Amino acid sequence: MKINLKKNKGITLIALVITIIVLLILAGVSIAMLTGQNGILSQAQNASTQTEIAEAKEQAQMDIMAWQSERLENGQDATLND
Prior knowledge:
Elements: H1 2-35, H2 40-73
């Protein structure tokens, strides 16, 4: 019986070490996915910038259309020369 207890303790210790190693590898991969050049945080920042640019373009287009609409209502020419 004493021999079986020693084997079980050894197997448990080895399993613990392997589990820790696997967790460290997973943590390293996760951190690399978050912070790399193509990481999630970088992609989120790029998406935020592109959204702001698209909003500015849309606002400019709406302002131009409002200007054109106002000019047409007043019977003026609504073409943009610039």
